[in-house]
Amino acid sequence: MELSDSQIIERTLAGEPDAFNALVRRWERQIYGLTLRMLGRDDEAKDATQETFLSAYRNLSKFRGEAKFSSWIYRIALNTCNTKLRSRSRFTISLDEQRETSGFELAADTEDLGSGIQQEQVTRHVRRALQGLPSEMRQVIIMKEYEGLKFSEIADVLGIPISTVKTRMYTGLTELRKRLEHLREAV
Amino acid sequence: MKLEMSGEEMNSTPKTPNCNMHEALVAYLYDEAAPDENRRVKAHLTECSACEQELQAFERVRGMLQQWQLDDLPVLRVVTEPSSVKRSMVAALKELFWVTPVWAKALGAVATAMLVLAVMGTDVSIGRDGFSFHANLLGRPQTAPVNTNEKTSGSLNGANIEQVRTEVRSLVNQLIAESERQQKEQIEAQLVSLEAQLQTMHTTDLAKLASRIQEHQARLKTIERDLDRREGLDLTDILFSEVSKPSERITGGGD
To answer: A16 CB near a chain B CB, below 8 Å?
Structure first.
């Protein structure tokens, strides 16, 4: 039978450090997905994922059993991402670097957007549109769309009311709609 | 741990439709509306085309968002630091027991037995009269040592003691040799396992590299095709414009 998160934590705290690896394997995909979509850069996301799990391991004795481990680890991951985002000045990115990270531009006419390469371009635009959102909207959208959390769970992770989560979601979707409207024929 | 926010709270209600339905609309979009809220949204959507359009637009945005899926996962190896996690005494003793060699365990067992006997007031001695044993479990005053050998197998002489020592020595040597052999086997097994793991990681890395190279090649080809297509269109435009002008003149002259 598969151990629950709480049981693995108990074992780790009882002196089985290897037990924690099971927890890492269980959650690494979700945490990497979250950090990648929050930060937009693969290398930074890998670092943030490592830092998240190390931080969780070091603070495992402070974990309160009444909260869900998923909420706790997501919160650590978001804090790690926010620290990285604060240290990164968005205004210092040169145009060349922006072009380099975003790849070549989407063709002005979207006549052939049905083929494979254009789908890749749509993904790239989605990525950039998400990066352009304020962090508090982005994290709500990522947790909802990609991690599949319920509004109540997102509220729990962020420590805010559910109504605020829904408002951020609505505003974020409205912003994304404006930024991605020109791609509507592609999808 | 409290999440620090950047400060921009959503105080202003979104303005697109003036229906003030944004929370209900989002809950409906993600199938999280309560039954009565669900009915209210459905009824509203039949009357309000703005909200209806907005909902459709959000669904399109969701479709686009879902195109960004992860196909690669980094290999994570979190280095655990045993000192940072509080271990119970029992767990520490258990771990110590498993890492101790067999001969050390045997010596430890003998020493523990001697210690227990000493605490219980038992006197064990080997002298000229042979092996003597005296127990004083209830703390009664000691009497003359009882020579147990007289009751069992008679007296042990010096040669017998030497023989016992030799046997004990050979037994300890055997235990040491056995322990060393076991440790050697364990190390060999670990080396084999490590080699297999390294091989697997190597193969995985190679496969990832190969797939990335293929992906880049495909991307390059597509870019080349795109460039060729654009160049081709430009050339056609030029040719078409050059050819069309005389024909237009001819047609115009005919009229």
So the answer is: yes
The conformation of residue B137, written as its DSSP 8-state character, comes to T
**Letter for the amino acid at B76?**
L
Give the model's pLDDT for residue B84.
47
> Pick from B20, B120, B3: which is nearest to A143 by CA?
B3
Taking contacts as CB-CB distances below 8 angstroms, the residues of chain B near A176 are 61, 64-65
Q: What value does the mean pLDDT take over residues B16-45?
A: 89
The rounded percent of chain B whose pLDDT value lies above 90 is 16
Beta bridge mates, B130? B127
Question: Does residue A101 lie in a domain region?
Answer: no
Decide which of B206 and A169 is more confident. Answer: A169
Where does residue B76 fall: left (phi above 0), alpha (psi -120 to 50 degrees), or beta otherwise? beta
Q: What is the CATH number of the domain that holds A54?
A: 1.10.1740.10
Q: Which residue has the higher pLDDT, B201 or A95?
A: B201
Question: Alpha-carbon distance B81 to A54, whole Å?
Answer: 9
Q: Which domain holds residue B133?
A: 90-187
Residues 6+ apart with CB under 8 A from B58: A173, A177, B25, B29
Query: Given B187, B214, B245, which residue is the final one in a domain?
Result: B187
Q: Is the pLDDT of residue B177 over 60?
A: yes
Encoded tokens for A153: 């769970």
Closest-CA distance of chain B to residue A38, Å: 13
Shared domain for B59 and B101, answered yes or no, is no
Burial tier of A144 (Cβ tally within 10 Å: 0-12, 13-18, 19+)? buried
B70 CB neighbours in chain A (<8 A) are 29, 32-33, 36
Q: Which of A14, A134, A166 sits opposite B6 (nearest CB)?
A: A134
- Tell whether B26 is covered by a domain: yes
Chain A residue with CA closest to B5: the answer is A136
Please spell the DSSP secondary structure of A19-39, one letter per residue. HHHHHHHHHHHHHHHHHHHHH
Rounded-to-integer distance, Cα A46 and Cα B76, Å = 8
Angle at B42 between CA B41 and CA B43, to 5 degrees: 90
Sorting pLDDT into bands at 50, 70 and 90, what band is B69?
Answer: confident
Last residue of a domain, one of B141, B158, B187: B187
Residues of B in contact with A79 (CB under 8 A): 1, 3-4
Largest CA distance in chain A: 62
Lowest-confidence segment of A95-99, B187-191, B207-211 by average pLDDT: A95-99
Range of the domain at A60: 1-88
Number of structural domains in chain B: 2
